[in-house]
Design a protein that fits this description.
This protein has helices at residues 11-23, 34-41, 60-70, 82-85, 105-117, 152-163, 171-179, 189-201, and strands spanning 3-7, 27-31, 48-52, 76-80, 97-100, 126-129, 132-135, 140-143, 146-148, 168-169, 206-209, 213-216. It is α/β, with parallel strands linked by helices. The chain folds into 2 domains: 3-116, Response regulator (Rossmann fold), CATH 3.40.50; 126-216, Orthogonal Bundle (Arc Repressor Mutant, subunit A), CATH 1.10.10. The structure holds calcium ion. Calcium ion binds at residues 9-10, 52, 54-55.
């Protein structure tokens, strides 16, 4: 299991990252300031570091510089605020990747997977569940023999479903995975997009679990799913 260090002082974002990463099979640890982040990152226990640039005690850019001196290969993904993202790249030399807040979790996850892939087998580029096939490279979806055009948002939502077949996903989970943590939790955007997906894939593919959320039906067991 890959271990990820989350260096982030903003509790809301740290816990959003921690929950999301754990749900996707990563082990995580938190560092709330730059000093702790540096000590933990140097321990050699982590496969990747998510580093917030604005950290107390020791600034994220200094953490990165120090860390690079100690460990030139540990992948570091830097999180920046909008203002910092506009600054020159100089402060971020040594970062493997960076993302500006607010970010969408699936995008962060995709970048983490790219960074961690190095030594393992190449990641599957086509996700298949039943007669559904989602090609992550061409961003095309097939339902049986039929090719379906998806918008960017529909694609991301479909990807979340296909990565968790048969699993109930709550509206909150889908919202944070596809729309990001800054989205209004009272919004009905998830229901709207599930409706779009059902229209394109066939209603039977996505089941409603009353009071809990939605589930990609695998067709493997149980009675035929109801739309
Ligand atoms: Ca911060």
């Amino acid at each position: 299991m890959n271990r990820i260090l989350i260096a982030e002082d903003e509790h809301r974002i740290a816990s959003f990252l921690e929950k999301g990463l754990r749900a996707n099979g990563f082990a995580t640890a938190l560092a709330g300031d730059g000093r702790a982040a540096l000590a933990m990152a140097r321990s050699g226990q982590f496969d990747l570091v998510i580093l917030d640039l604005g950290l107390p005690e020791v600034d994220g850019a200094d953490v990165l510089r120090e860390l690079r001196r100690a460990d030139p290969v540990l992948p570091v993904l830097v999180l920046t605020s909008r203002e910092e993202a506009g600054e020159g790249a100089g402060a971020l030399e040594g970062a493997d990747d960076r993302m500006a807040k607010p970010f969408v979790f699936e995008e962060l996850l995709a970048r983490i997977r790219v960074r961690l892939r190095g030594d393992g087998a190449p990641e599957e580029t086509i996700l298949r569940v039943g007669d559904l096939a989602l090609d992550l490279r061409t961003r095309r979806m097939r339902v049986g023999e039929r090719t379906v055009d998806l918008t960017a948002r529909e694609f991301t939502l479909a990807e979340v479903f296909l990565r968790h077949p048969g699993q109930v996903l709550s509206r909150e989970q889908l919202l944070s995975h596809v729309w990001g943590y800054d989205f209004d939790p009272g919004s009905n955007v998830v229901d709207v997009y599930v409706r779009y997906l059902r229209r394109k894939l066939g209603a039977e593919h996505i089941g409603t679990v009353r009071g809990m959320g939605y589930r990609l039906e695998t067709g493997a067991d149980g009675p035929p799913p109801r739309p």
